[in-house]
Amino acid sequence: MKKNLLIGILAALLICICCFCVLTRISQKNETEPERASVAFEDVLTTRRSVRSYDATKKISEAEVRELLTAVQEAPSWANQQPTKYYVAMSEEKVAAVQELVGPNNKKNIAGAPVLIVSTYEKGKSGFFQDKQTNEIGDGWGAYDNGLSNCYLILQARAMGFDTLIMGMRDADALRTLFDIPGNEEVMAVISLGYRADEPRTPQHRPFDEVVKFF
Questions:
Q1: What is the pLDDT of residues 13-23, one digit of tens each?
Q2: Cα(65)–Cα(105) distance, integer angstroms
Q3: What is the DSSP string of 77-129?
Q4: Dist CA 44 CA 153 (whole Å)
């Protein structure tokens, strides 16, 4: 009887010690990593903004970027060609190098962003069948698919609590050299990824009837 009681007490102590260790690890993780403010999907469209001021004290882990870009792979593409590729700069050296290739205004805007992503697409895939162009748009469909992927990226980023800025002003040749991007890929945009330092203004949109026609 006493033996069973002693075993029960020891088991209870062991469970308590395990729970304490788990809670301690969670607490330490929360102290070292910025809290991710997840955004409900119904709020994503209205809270996403092109952010030009980032909080340099908040970092993003490689695991989080992997989670983001894994979700982006769900984006549709012509005949599931999936022509979009991403080159991710996270080291201080690579981030600083990319900052020099997006123009002085963009360099200032993304100064605090911890991650910069170069977006490309493979030519001759979307818009082609058996190596032949299927209509007058041609490789424009590759750019179209790249835009769809980038749209998924910025929306998923916002859903994860991150902020982005898509930059079309960039030195494509220098980026190609920096990341060893193959010649069959078209360099499209550089996308910053980070946390907003302040609330960006809400832009004014064109009247609905100017952009939508019903027949």
A1: 444 434 444 33
A2: 25
A3: -GGG---EEEEEE-SHHHHHHHHTTS-HHHHHHTTT-SEEEEEEEETTSTTEE
A4: 12
Burial code (b: 16+ CB inside 10 Å, e: under 16) for 1-35 equals eeeeeeeeeeeeeeeeeeeeeeeeeeeeeeeeeee
Q: pLDDT tens across 132-148, in order?
A: 999 999 999 999 999 99
Nearest by Cα to 177 from 71, 63, 111, 87? 87
Longest dimension (CA), the chain: 87
pTM for the whole structure: 0.82
Give dist(CA 165, CA 193) in Å, integer.
7
